[in-house]
UniProtKB/TrEMBL annotation:
<dbReference type="InterPro" id="IPR038956">
    <property type="entry name" value="LEA_5"/>
</dbReference>
<protein>
    <submittedName>
        <fullName>Uncharacterized protein</fullName>
    </submittedName>
</protein>
<dbReference type="GO" id="GO:0009737">
    <property type="term" value="P:response to abscisic acid"/>
</dbReference>
<dbReference type="InterPro" id="IPR000389">
    <property type="entry name" value="Small_hydrophilic_seed_prot"/>
</dbReference>
<dbReference type="Pfam" id="PF00477">
    <property type="entry name" value="LEA_5"/>
</dbReference>
<feature type="compositionally biased region" description="Basic and acidic residues">
    <location>
        <begin position="72"/>
        <end position="86"/>
    </location>
</feature>
<feature type="region of interest" description="Disordered">
    <location>
        <begin position="1"/>
        <end position="92"/>
    </location>
</feature>
<dbReference type="GO" id="GO:0005829">
    <property type="term" value="C:cytosol"/>
</dbReference>
<feature type="compositionally biased region" description="Basic and acidic residues">
    <location>
        <begin position="32"/>
        <end position="62"/>
    </location>
</feature>
<feature type="compositionally biased region" description="Basic and acidic residues">
    <location>
        <begin position="1"/>
        <end position="17"/>
    </location>
</feature>
Length: 92
C-alpha cells in the first residue's frame, strides 16, 4: 500500500503534467499550488457570500447559471422572462 508521501508525489507528478488533481485547483502547476488555489477560491466565495448575504449570493448564482458564450446571464434572463432581483447584489 502506498504511503501518504508516495501518494502525494504521484498527485504532484500528475499536476506537473497539467492535470487538475485538486477540485478548484485548476491552473496550478504543482499539487501544492493547486491546493493553495482551491483554498483561495473557496475563501473568496465564502467572503462574497458573507458580503451579499445568502439571498444575494443565490440570486447572483441564478444569473450566472444562465450565461452562455454569446449572452450574459442578464440578457438570457430578460429573453426568457426570468426575474433576477439585482438589488440583492449589493453589499450588506
Amino acid at each position: 500500500m502506498a504511503s501518504k508521501q508516495q501518494s502525494r508525489e504521484k498527485l504532484d507528478e500528475r499536476a506537473k503534467q497539467g492535470e487538475t488533481v485538486v477540485q478548484g485547483g485548476t491552473g496550478g502547476k504543482s499539487l501544492e499550488a493547486q491546493e493553495h488555489l482551491a483554498e483561495g477560491r473557496s475563501k473568496g466565495g465564502q467572503t462574497r457570500k458573507e458580503q451579499l448575504g445568502t439571498e444575494g449570493y443565490k440570486e447572483m448564482g441564478r444569473e450566472g447559471g444562465l450565461s452562455t458564450m454569446d449572452k450574459s446571464g442578464a440578457e438570457r434572463a430578460e429573453e426568457e422572462g426570468i426575474k433576477i432581483d439585482q438589488s440583492k447584489f449589493t453589499n450588506k
